[in-house]
Each structure stands twice: as C-alpha cells, then as structure tokens.
Specification:
Layout: H1 2-12, E1 19-21, E2 32-35, E3 40-43, H2 54-64, E4 69-71, E5 76-79, E6 85-87, E7 94-96, H3 101-108, E8 113-115, E9 119-125, E10 128-133, E11 138-142, E12 145-147, H4 151-157, H5 162-168, E13 173-183, E14 193-195, E15 202-207, E16 220-225, H6 227-232, H7 238-252, E17 259-272, E18 281-283, E19 288-290, H8 299-315
Parallel strand pairs: 1-8, 5-14, 12-19
Antiparallel strand pairs: 2-3, 4-7, 5-6, 9-10, 10-11, 13-16, 13-17, 14-15, 15-16, 18-19
This protein binds flavin-adenine dinucleotide.
Flavin-adenine dinucleotide binds near residues 30, 49, 118, 178 and 298.
C-alpha cells in the first residue's frame, strides 16, 4: 500500500516511477491466499481496515475503484479486561472485495510493477540509485529511491550506509502466525470476528467467508496468534504451530468441530512494536525516502498516511520542483 500510494501520486504529476516487488503479486501484508483449487481466496494478513482520512477514501475511489472495497458488517467482538466479550468500538471497517488483495491489484494497474524482483543491495553514485536484485539483475539509475519494506528488510539493503542503518535499528516489527482453517461443520458462533487480548496464544479469529463478495459455502476462519507467542514459534515446525493455534481457538470457544483443511502463513514482520512514528524518513543528500506502516502507527491506513507524509515533504522541498495535487 505504501509503495503503490507513493508511486501512483508521483506518476500522476509526471514523474517516471517503477516498482520492484519480490513477490508474485502486489498485496504485501494485504495478501490473500488461494485455496480449494483456486476457487476461493482468504485474507491471511490484514483483516479489515479503517478509512478515517478522507484523502485515503478519495485515493481508493479514484485509483482502486468503488467496487474493490466494501464495508464489512460482520458482528465483531473484543475481549474486555474481565475476560467477557463485548461489541467492538463503533466505526466502519472495510475489506477488499472480493478479497483484500483486490485493492492492491487494481492500484498496481496504474504504474509499471515488476514482480519477482528481490532487491539485495543498493548502490548510489553521481548517476543516482541502482537496485541490485537477486540473480544479478541491475536496475536503474533512478534520481530518487523510496524504500517501503519493513525496517529489518530495508536495513539489509542499506549496507554501505551505516548512519541510515543505525536509525532504522530503532524500529522493530513483531511476527504473526496466521492459520486459515476450514472446519468439518459450521461453528454456529454468534460473531464473525473476535479480538482477544488476554489469551496467551490466540489474538484474532475472523470468519473470512462472512466478508462481502466472498464465495459462499463452507466456513473458513482465519486465526492470528499473539505476537510474542508467534516470536517463540519461529523455529517450530508448521504443523505444530497450526495445531496449537487451532486448538487454542477450539478450546477458547468450546468447539466440537474438527479441522478439515488448514493453511499456515508465517508473517515474520507483521506489526510494528510501537505505534508512534515520524510519518516517513527522507535523506535529502541522497534523495532516499522510507515509508510504510511502521513509520505511521501501523495498519493499512497508516501505510497510506506514511506515503502521504513523505509526499507532503517532497512537495515542500523547492529543490525538487514539482507540485502534487
Ligand atoms: C497478520 C496481519 C494482520 C493484520 N491485520 C490488520 C488489520 O486488521 N487492519 C489493518 O489496518 N492492518 C492490519 N495489518 C497490517 C497491514 O497489513 C499493514 O499495515 C499494511 O499492509 C502495510 O503496508 P506497507 O506498504 O507499509 O508494507 P507491506 O505490505 O509489508 O509492503 C512491503 C512490500 O515490500 C516487499 N519487499 C520486502 N522486501 C523486499 C525486497 N528486498 N525486494 C523487493 N520487495 C521487497 C514485500 O514483498 C511487500 O510487498 C495486519 C498485518 C498482518 C501481517
């Protein structure tokens, strides 16, 4: 989201941009996974998002399109301090439709994106920036570079820039083990999403098939683990982690149904450890910017806000000489 938001807005004012993405698709942590022989997709990362910033809504409507996102009216609960479940705070929550990655897929059509390009190293000289990608691919030069991977991954690219690396060491992300589970029968729970705060293992359970535009039929639940528990599981076998997370869900809600099929995704860098950030980072001497959710409060909307923050800074820099709408 941060990379697409940034590139689309720069492209709109006539700046030539290119996005280089290591994965096969544009979702990042808004990714969706295909299951059932590609007949169904499940949101393994971001479960929903807010639109508090009207510029974010305008951006989505203009570039992703009205039909790529919709409000999720599922009954969402939150665990109170006494362990009871209460209604989540009242606010609209949105999801991509028919899957979370529909948004980033639509956004990516506005700019050239090269997939399967894993940046390994960066070079900067009088010509500008070059990206050295896996497989010996050399990209550039570009006058300016914006990095949007999480801080640890951005840091790996910045060998040769020890001052920048030192600054990035101040930011850290926690992991999240995510399991999508299809049960042998409908669970008959009276909610479509629940956020726990006290459980040692389970943090979130959401009924993916209750989101707008999803394929009907069997129930698929997406389970997210507590970040510190996830940290303790990084080296454990996938089956062990999946079993523990599913068991935590079954035990917490006294479920009798067993799991018929499940898939795991380990998010190594899922959520920022702290929610406070400067919005973006910009190093004018070398025309290098960094943006992403980790610099602007986490979350999907934070990723957009971070791109906005960087763009506002660039707009105010006379040296660069361009204006953004
Ligand atoms: C399990 C989970 C649950 C979440 N739940 C919610 C939620 O309910 N609501 C919400 O608002 N947010 C949620 N989030 C957070 C939300 O997904 C993120 O805030 C948002 O997607 C971050 O966008 P971004 O552009 O900053 O970063 P990313 O989406 O991480 O984008 C960074 C991109 O950089 C690419 N990349 C990394 N390294 C390289 C490299 N070397 N070369 C090339 N490309 C590279 C990655 O593949 C990725 O596509 C959740 C995240 C996770 C993981």
């Amino acid at each position: 989201m941060a990379g697409l938001a940034c590139a689309i807005r720069l492209n709109a004012v006539g700046i030539r941009v290119g996005i280089y993405e290591k994965s096969r698709g544009p979702g990042g942590r808004m990714a969706s996974k295909r299951v059932d022989g590609d007949a169904r997709t499940l949101d393994m990362g971001a479960q929903y998002f807010t639109i508090r910033n009207t510029r974010f809504r305008r951006f989505l409507e203009s570039y992703a399109g009205f039909d790529t996102f919709a409000a999720w009216s599922g009954r969402l609960l939150h665990e109170a301090d006494d362990g009871g479940l209460e209604a989540f705070t009242v606010q609209q929550r949105f999801v991509g439709a028919p899957r979370m990655s529909a948004i980033t897929r639509a956004l990516s059509r506005h700019i050239p994106v090269e997939y399967g390009v894993q940046a390994e190293r960066l070079e900067h000289d009088e010509d500008g920036w070059r990206i050295l990608a896996q497989g010996g691919h050399r990209i550039g030069p570009y006058d300016a570079l914006v990095l949007t991977p999480p801080p640890a991954q951005s840091n790996c690219l910045l060998h040769g820039f020890p001052e920048l690396q030192k600054e990035l060491e101040g930011y850290s992300m926690l992991p999240c083990m995510a399991v999508a589970a299809c049960f042998s029968e409908p669970l008959d729970l009276d909610f479509q999403g629940v956020q726990l705060v006290q459980h040692p293992v389970l943090r979130w359970a959401g009924l993916d098939s209750s989101k707008p535009g999803r394929e009907e039929g069997v129930e698929w639940w997406v389970l997210h683990a507590d970040p510190y528990w996830s940290l303790s599981q990084l080296d454990k076998p996938e089956d062990e982690v999946s079993d523990a997370l599913v068991e935590a869900f079954r035990e917490r809600f006294s479920l009798k149904a067993v799991v018929a099929e499940r898939h795991i995704h380990r998010w190594r860098y899922a959520i920022p450890e702290t929610e406070v950030g400067p919005g973006h980072l910009w190093y004018p001497k070398v025309n290098l910017g960094l943006c992403g959710d980790w610099l602007s409060g986490g979350r999907v909307e934070g990723a957009f806000d971070s791109a906005e923050s960087l763009l506002a800074h660039l707009r105010s820099d006379d040296r660069l000489g361009f204006s953004l709408p």
